[in-house]
Amino acid sequence: MTVNKAVATRIAELLKEKKMTRYKLAMRSGVTHSTLKNILNETISDNKLSTIILIAGGFDMTVSEFLSSPLFDEDNLMI
Questions:
Q1: What does pLDDT average to in each consecutive run of 10 residues of the chain (79 residues)?
Q2: pTM for this one?
Q3: Which of left, alpha, beta for 19 (phi over 0: left; psi -120 to 50: alpha)?
Q4: CB-count exposure of residue 34 (10 Å: 0-12, 13-18, 19+)
Q5: Does domain 3-70 have CATH number 3.90.1170.30?
Q6: Beta-carbon neighbour count of residue 51 at 10 Å?
Q7: Helix (H), strand (E), coil (C) string for the chain
Protein backbone atom coordinates (compact mmCIF):
# COMPACT_ATOMS: atom_id res chain seq x y z
CA MET A 1 0.00 0.00 0.00
CA THR A 2 1.27 3.49 -0.77
CA VAL A 3 1.53 6.15 1.92
CA ASN A 4 -1.12 8.20 0.11
CA LYS A 5 -3.51 5.23 0.11
CA ALA A 6 -2.85 4.64 3.83
CA VAL A 7 -3.59 8.30 4.63
CA ALA A 8 -6.79 8.24 2.56
CA THR A 9 -7.91 4.99 4.17
CA ARG A 10 -7.17 6.29 7.68
CA ILE A 11 -9.15 9.48 7.06
CA ALA A 12 -12.08 7.48 5.69
CA GLU A 13 -11.98 5.16 8.73
CA LEU A 14 -11.97 8.08 11.16
CA LEU A 15 -14.75 9.92 9.32
CA LYS A 16 -16.93 6.83 9.62
CA GLU A 17 -15.90 6.09 13.23
CA LYS A 18 -16.58 9.65 14.37
CA LYS A 19 -19.68 10.04 12.16
CA MET A 20 -18.15 13.15 10.63
CA THR A 21 -18.54 14.56 7.12
CA ARG A 22 -15.65 15.73 4.97
CA TYR A 23 -17.10 19.23 5.18
CA LYS A 24 -17.05 19.18 8.99
CA LEU A 25 -13.48 17.85 8.99
CA ALA A 26 -12.48 20.65 6.61
CA MET A 27 -14.02 23.25 8.90
CA ARG A 28 -12.43 21.81 12.04
CA SER A 29 -8.99 21.23 10.52
CA GLY A 30 -8.57 24.29 8.35
CA VAL A 31 -7.79 22.08 5.35
CA THR A 32 -9.91 22.99 2.35
CA HIS A 33 -12.67 20.63 1.28
CA SER A 34 -11.05 20.33 -2.15
CA THR A 35 -7.74 19.29 -0.60
CA LEU A 36 -9.50 16.64 1.50
CA LYS A 37 -11.30 15.42 -1.61
CA ASN A 38 -7.99 15.18 -3.46
CA ILE A 39 -6.38 13.28 -0.58
CA LEU A 40 -9.29 10.84 -0.35
CA ASN A 41 -9.30 10.34 -4.14
CA GLU A 42 -5.50 9.96 -4.05
CA THR A 43 -4.95 12.64 -6.68
CA ILE A 44 -2.28 14.36 -4.59
CA SER A 45 1.11 12.87 -5.37
CA ASP A 46 2.64 13.50 -1.95
CA ASN A 47 0.82 14.56 1.22
CA LYS A 48 2.55 17.16 3.38
CA LEU A 49 3.14 16.40 7.03
CA SER A 50 1.72 19.82 7.90
CA THR A 51 -1.57 18.84 6.21
CA ILE A 52 -1.66 15.54 8.10
CA ILE A 53 -1.08 17.41 11.38
CA LEU A 54 -4.01 19.73 10.61
CA ILE A 55 -6.25 16.79 9.69
CA ALA A 56 -5.32 14.96 12.90
CA GLY A 57 -6.21 18.10 14.83
CA GLY A 58 -9.57 18.19 13.05
CA PHE A 59 -10.23 14.77 14.52
CA ASP A 60 -9.08 16.02 17.97
CA MET A 61 -6.05 13.73 17.74
CA THR A 62 -2.32 14.17 17.78
CA VAL A 63 -0.45 13.24 14.64
CA SER A 64 0.97 10.28 16.61
CA GLU A 65 -2.56 9.04 17.31
CA PHE A 66 -3.50 9.50 13.65
CA LEU A 67 -0.47 7.47 12.53
CA SER A 68 -1.02 4.84 15.24
CA SER A 69 -2.70 2.39 12.88
CA PRO A 70 -1.53 -0.84 11.28
CA LEU A 71 -1.99 0.98 7.96
CA PHE A 72 1.28 2.80 8.68
CA ASP A 73 3.34 -0.22 9.73
CA GLU A 74 6.50 -0.24 7.62
CA ASP A 75 5.78 -3.80 6.49
CA ASN A 76 2.50 -2.64 4.96
CA LEU A 77 3.84 0.39 3.07
CA MET A 78 5.57 0.81 -0.26
CA ILE A 79 8.03 3.66 0.23
A1: 94 97 97 96 90 98 96 88
A2: 0.92
A3: left
A4: exposed
A5: no
A6: 18
A7: CEHHHHHHHHHHHHHHHCCCCHHHHHHHHCCCHHHHHHHHCCCCCCCCHHHHHHHHHHCCCCHHHHHCCHHHCHHHCEC
